[in-house]
Amino acid sequence: QFKKPEDAIKYRQSAYTVMANSFSKIGAVVKGEAPYNKEDVAKNAAVVATLSTLPWQAFGPGTEGGNALPAIWSDNAKFKAASEKMQLAVANLNTVAQTGDLESIKKAFGAAGQTCKGCHDDFKKK
Length: 126
Ligand code: ASC
Hints:
The chain is mainly alpha-helical and 126 residues long. The protein has one domain (5-62, 69-123): Four Helix Bundle (Hemerythrin (Met), subunit A). Helix content is 71%, strand content 0%. The chain contains five helices and no strands. The longest helix has 26 residues, at 5-30. The two termini are 28 Å apart. 28% of the residues are buried. Bound molecules: ascorbic acid. Ascorbic acid binds at residues 20, 23-24, 27, 113, 116-117. The site of ascorbic acid has 7 residues, from α1 and α5.
């Protein structure tokens, strides 16, 4: 799917970049730094949920590098489990965001943020 390892690295980093942009916009609302607009949050949550499905295909054999730690390949089952946990958490954030209940959004956002961090701790260069 990717001609060079750099192409895979660029692809997965791009997906994370777009995801983080939308996630942090929701974060600003959750932290009270931006006003709550239901449609904006719902849209950003949908972007995060969709983008969350993309990076994993770009961690194939021979694509080591970027900010990825070798544990992604040496302990791939654990990486996959962490990625699935994150995808479930952001899918839930998206479901909740579409309902427009800010308290539920705050809870789902916090839980999703923990799954980002969980993976970074073990699999991303500091
Ligand atoms: C973000 C972002 C992450 C997560 C993480 C939550 O906005 O870019 O990686 O939140 O920091 O703990």
